[in-house]
Design goal:
Blueprint: E1 3-7, H1 14-25, H2 37-44, E2 50-57, E3 60-69, E4 74-77, E5 89-90, H3 98-105, E6 109-116, E7 126-136, H4 145-152, H5 154-171, E8 174-177, H6 183-199, H7 209-219, E9 227-235, E10 238-247, E11 251-252, E12 256-259, H8 268-282, E13 287-289, H9 296-301, E14 304-314, H10 318-339, H11 341-359
Parallel strand pairs: 4-6, 11-13
Antiparallel strand pairs: 1-2, 2-3, 3-4, 3-5, 6-14, 7-13, 7-14, 8-9, 9-10, 10-12
Helix pairs in contact: 4-5, 10-11
Length: 417
Amino acid sequence: MSTITIHRPEELSLPLRRSWHRAMDESPDYANPFLAPEFAAGIGRHRGGARVAVLHEGEEAVGFLPYERNALGVGRAIGLGLSDAQALVHRPGVTWDTRELLRACGLSVFEFDHLVEEQKPFGAYVTGTFASPAIDLKDGDYAGYAEWLRGAYPGLAKTTLKKERRLARDLGEMRFVFDERDPAALRTLMRWKSAQYRRTGRMDRFARPWIVELVEQLFQVREEHFTGVLSVVYAGDRPVAAHFGPRSRTVFAPWFTAYDPDLQYYSPGLIMHLRMAEAAGRDGVRLMDLGRGDKEWKDWLKTRELRVGEGFAVRPHPVATAHRLWRRPVRGLRNTVLAHPRLREPADRLLKTVGTLRTTGRMGSGTRTGTGTGTGTGSGPAPRRNTGGQRGANAQGNSTPQRNASAQGNAAPRRER
């Protein structure tokens, strides 16, 4: 077993961060920006229990596990509920004994829900695996966005381009900025997203000051392995849709997307994701990881699926037993709802009704909603399924509610796609 040292993520030395980056570079499994030390450091500035276990072989740092720990020794992947990739990032050939690792971290249990598939030593503790849709990107020989769209998504191209032309005709020339640096646009995105959460009965992430501050800080990070990218669709000078998410050199991870609800007729969510995919490919990104979740819009856009796992790594301890007895049924119920449209759709309608009552002032301020096994909101595009079976044909690109389960206990809130 390697020697293990424990550190605050925001206090890692420059040599340790470089070793972490090297481990990311040596395996495509770890190229996701959510696995970068910059993301762990961002969480660490706001979460007192954030730590990184560093595995050493001799004098060399060869593995890095970012996690959060509470006073009882219950641990979870760092940013659980906000991150779409979790792992012990390591050099090729490195392995570990999971129980010894937990003991060194002072943990009785380590909970994860987006564990990358490569993590073999955690395999015995995985309780379920799930698809994480992704889009393979490349910088092709296209004359421009319209030609790329016709080649990549022929079934969506005609309708989408028509809506873009209509948007320009009605509101002013449409333009897309892939890497917008105006903080005002970021504030607009968070305001839209906050309203969307409330309108659809979900927990408002941006009502939590630490998440607002985290997003604002990550927006300023511009490193090779983690850059906060704000993208905006404008019509004239008016922002229509916006997205914020991290990218590494080769992987882009969509995170928060929202749009002006008065303009939903133009399918701004669909326009945003397609524009981002084309621009990211031109900028060197080779994979757009859409994140775990069985969403119709992801089915239309994906080119393949990654696999991520959820579960609880444990060592013999009463706290670990109690935590699993409490959390596992909650996860099971949520996964059952998400996997069955007959359950998911009524849950979605219920949350939308609650959101309507809340936003119209007909529900008391003390009522708590959006914290059970409810499903998520329409932060991404959801093209209408074509009954003829052609991929993307006749898609309307209307945003529909997405599925989500909110965080339990002291975990960070689960992100909605």
